[in-house]
């Protein structure tokens, strides 16, 4: 017998009382060798920043190993590696910042050819009845990006919305929910 | 927990290409049917207008990034009081004391053990302990309204809390939200992430609430409504409501999806 899933509902405007946790944006402990900062902002259809968003991240470590306990390959041995980040600080300007390491490459669909380094992203907010899912890829991985089986399924004209640009201490990745330069969102 | 970790195969470039999951962990998840969740574009809920993508979603095959997920229990260092929202302050909160419990299953009916359940809610007067909530209802100094727990070995969770009140909001003239508790679930895979709301049976505001009705199928709406359970009430102490939550389960065959 197959049961049906429980439907999604909006995270609403008041998630800050229960969802964020201290250090939630530290995917690796601050001070980890090779750490990077990824920053960005979330914009609505009028290109206004969305201050009340929750954004989450999931990624492997630099060797392509996950902090997953269910046995998919070897577990990450990077000290303190959580692999997961959650930023839900309502600081009013729609921005986020995470501390992490650049992910390694992992197999593609059906354990096929390697994917380019990427981070899975969940974004939720008031006014969103379901999460949206996107991915962060990296501008300095042109060769890997060109071979990536997921990017290959994205219309070429929109691929650049998934590519984070380099900054002095990491990368920048903005998300546009709607309108000019609308970010690619995935059906998962 | 069974562990069947064989040594992963490694190609000559040293990159592991085969993942060996424990026996009960799927390699690919079932796709949600089209009507299972609300549409992101739902005009009766006005805030959706500028916050939904207009371009079509792009199909994402499930890879190892999507079928793995975080385990936050050590990060959050859960305390015994985290699942009892009535003992987190100096005194007793005001309102109807309730026990909210149920199981977290996947769509095959298999319980999800050790999975994080997070809740947050308004107080008995319908007011959130949040600086942006300006409704003219009293705050309760003994009620913050947030809780966390892990499911047990049978996938069961339980919270003790106060029944939240309904409250007005600005979506349209005389709009009220039915009483609800927000739930957040991580499941065990990125694909299973779910944020939703639990409602109470017989709420008179159901017909008027666009967020509840954004789920177009009546049966599906019913899956968000808890049931009163006299057998789980605690005599002379608390009422009880049950609510089971279903997260996506495995795709029925490994080759269900072609790409």
Helix content of chain B: under 10%
How much is the average pLDDT of chain B?
89
Shape of chain B: globular
Gyration radius from CA atoms of chain A, angstroms: 17 Å
Task: Write down the domain tally of chain A.
Answer: 1
CATH homologous superfamily grouping of chain B: Aromatic compound dioxygenase
Summing up helix and strand content along with how strands pair, one would put the structural category of chain B as mainly beta
Quick summary:
Helix content of chain A is 3%, strand content 29%.
What are its keywords?
heterodimer, A: 188 residues, mainly beta, 1 helix, 3% helix, B: 259 residues, Protocatechuate 3,4-Dioxygenase, subunit A, 4-stranded antiparallel β-sheet, disordered N terminus, disordered C terminus
Walk me through what this model shows:
The complex is a heterodimer of chains A (188) and B (259). Chain A has 188 residues and is mainly β. Chain A has one domain (23-176): Aromatic compound dioxygenase (Protocatechuate 3,4-Dioxygenase, subunit A), CATH 2.60.130.10. Chain A has one helix and twelve strands. Chain A has one helix spanning 142-147, and strands at 36-43, 53-58, 84-87, 95-100, 107-108, 112-114, 119-125, 132-138, 163-167, 170-172, 175-176, 186-187. In chain A, helix 1 (142-147) links the parallel strand 8 (132-138) and strand 9 (163-167). The longest helix of chain A is centred in the C-terminal third of the chain and has 6 residues, at 142-147. Chain A starts with 35 loop residues before the first strand and ends with a strand. The mean pLDDT of chain A is 95. With 259 residues, chain B is mainly beta. Chain B has a single domain (46-247), classed as Aromatic compound dioxygenase (Protocatechuate 3,4-Dioxygenase, subunit A, Sandwich), CATH 2.60.130. Helices cover 7% and strands 22% of the residues of chain B. In chain B, the strands form three sheets. In chain B, strands 2, 5, 10, 11 and 12 form a five-stranded mixed β-sheet that branches. In chain B, a hairpin with an 8-residue loop joins strand 8 (180-185) and strand 9. The longest helix of chain B is centred in the last third of the chain and has 5 residues, at 218-222. Mean pLDDT of chain B is 89; it is low at 1-23 and 254-259. At the A-B interface, strand 5, strand 7, strand 8 and strand 12 of A face strand 1, helix 1, strand 3, strand 4 and strand 9 of B. Strand 12 of chain A pairs parallel with strand 1 of chain B.
């Amino acid at each position: 017998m197959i049961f049906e899933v429980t439907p999604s509902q909006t995270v609403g405007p008041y998630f800050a009382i229960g969802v964020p946790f201290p250090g939630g944006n530290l995917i690796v402990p601050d001070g980890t060798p090779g750490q990077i900062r990824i920053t960005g902002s979330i914009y609505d259809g009028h290109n206004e920043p969305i201050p009340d968003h929750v954004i989450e991240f999931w990624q492997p470590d630099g060797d392509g190993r996950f902090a997953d306990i269910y046995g998919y390959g070897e577990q990450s041995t990077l000290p303190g590696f959580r692999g997961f980040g959650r930023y839900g600080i309502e600081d009013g300007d729609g921005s986020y910042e995470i501390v992490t390491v650049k992910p390694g490459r992992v197999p593609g669909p059906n354990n096929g050819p390697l994917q380019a380094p990427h981070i899975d992203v969940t974004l939720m907010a008031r006014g969103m009845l379901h999460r949206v899912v996107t991915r962060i890829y990296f501008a300095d991985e042109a060769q890997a990006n060109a071979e990536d089986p997921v990017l290959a399924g994205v219309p070429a004209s929109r691929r650049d919305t998934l590519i984070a640009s380099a900054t002095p201490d990491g990368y920048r990745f903005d998300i546009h929910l709607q309108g000019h330069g609308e970010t690619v969102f995935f059906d998962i | 927990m069974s562990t069947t970790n064989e040594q992963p195969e490694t190609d000559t470039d040293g990159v592991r290409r085969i993942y060996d999951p424990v026996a009960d962990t799927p390699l690919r998840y079932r796709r949600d049917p089209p009507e299972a969740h609300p549409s992101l574009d739902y005009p009766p809920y006005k805030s959706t207008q500028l916050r939904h993508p207009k371009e079509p979603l792009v199909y994402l095959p499930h890879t190892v990034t999507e079928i793995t997920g975080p385990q936050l229990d050590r990060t959050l260092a859960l305390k015994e009081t985290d699942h009892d929202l009535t003992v987190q302050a100096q005194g007793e909160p005001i309102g109807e004391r309730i026990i909210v419990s149920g199981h977290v299953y996947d769509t095959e009916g298999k319980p999800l053990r050790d999975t994080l359940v997070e809740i947050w809610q308004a107080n008995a007067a319908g007011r959130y302990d949040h600086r942006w909530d300006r409704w003219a209802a009293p705050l309760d100094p003994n009620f913050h309204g947030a809780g966390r727990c892990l499911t047990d070995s049978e996938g069961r969770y339980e919270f003790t809390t106060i029944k939240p009140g309904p409250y007005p909001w600005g979506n349209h003239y005389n709009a009220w939200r039915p009483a609800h508790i927000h739930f957040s679930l991580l499941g065990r895979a990125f694909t299973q992430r779910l944020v939703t709301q639990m409602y109470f049976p017989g709420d008179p505001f159901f017909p008027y609430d666009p967020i509840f009705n954004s789920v177009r199928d009546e049966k599906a709406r019913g899956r968000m409504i808890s049931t009163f359970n006299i057998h789980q009430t605690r005599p002379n102490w608390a009422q009880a409501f049950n609510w089971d939550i279903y997260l996506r389960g495995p795709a029925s065959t490994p080759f269900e999806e072609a790409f």
